[in-house]
Amino acid sequence: MKYGLPVYIYPLLFVVYSLILFYGCYYVGSNFFIKIICSATTDQKEIAISFDDGPSSNYTTEILQLLKQDNIKATFFCIGNRIAGNESIIKKIKEEGHIIGNHSYSHHFWFDIFSSRKMLDDLKKMDQETERVIGMLPKLFRPPYGVTNPNLKKAIIKGDYTPVGWSVRSMNTVIRNEKKLLNKINRSLKPGAVFLFHDTSKTTVNVLPEFIREVKNKGYHIIPLDKLLHLNPYA
């Protein structure tokens, strides 16, 4: 016994604490370390769609064409080190009325263990690349892998970013069965939802037209993320 508690309670408490900490770090909507906007509170049949990890020379332009056909505006959370060589795609995203958000410069596998200073330097480097091409600084930031921690909180606050997550993760980079993927995202359709896709995936190109049709058939409208969440997209 210690402090009136059985000894076995302490490892149990440690496990519970670790699980809570894991949840706080790896579930983007937990708001454990910092509030991240993942959806809108509304009864209007309005949603927003977003794309991570581009620009992709293979698929981003195809996605832009699909969006243009239906006059849909989306948000592209881009990785800074993929901008060089794809400047024309970034310009096209902006010219066609879509938003460009910050998804870090490196999207490094170990990004979540960077110091807060290194994280902020990484985010600022992405800003510089975006400003170089379109003359504007992104204010919306989506954490790589959706992971948050105290260091990232400091970087977000210091950089004056608005952190944005998602309420529906399509899993389009994991689920290869397109019918199964469509069923998953269609079941998640509800007012104020923010959908996450990746413009680095052929699966996204294949399922997007059918998803858009389903959204319209159910009486929903796809509106810009900044309008849905009432945010300023640029600094």
Structural topology:
Blueprint: H1 9-26, E1 46-52, H2 60-69, E2 75-78, H3 87-95, E3 99-102, H4 116-134, E4 140-141, H5 150-159, E5 162-163, E6 168-169, H6 178-187, E7 194-198, H7 202-217, E8 221-222, H8 225-229
Helix pairs in contact: 4-5, 6-7
Concise synopsis of the structure shown:
By secondary structure, the chain is α/β, with parallel strands linked by helices. It has helices spanning 9-26, 60-69, 87-95, 116-134, 150-159, 178-187, 202-217, 225-229; strands at residues 46-52, 75-78, 99-102, 140-141, 162-163, 168-169, 194-198, 221-222. The strands form 2 sheets. Strands 1, 2, 3, 6, 7 and 8 form a 6-stranded parallel beta sheet that branches. Strands 4-5 form a two-stranded parallel sheet.
Describe the fold and architecture.
The chain is an alpha/beta fold and 235 residues long. It contains 8 helices and 8 strands, in the order αβαβαβαβαββαβαβα. The strands form 2 sheets. Strands 1, 2, 3, 6, 7 and 8 form a 6-stranded parallel sheet that branches. A two-stranded parallel sheet has the order 4-5. The N and C termini lie far apart (57 Å).
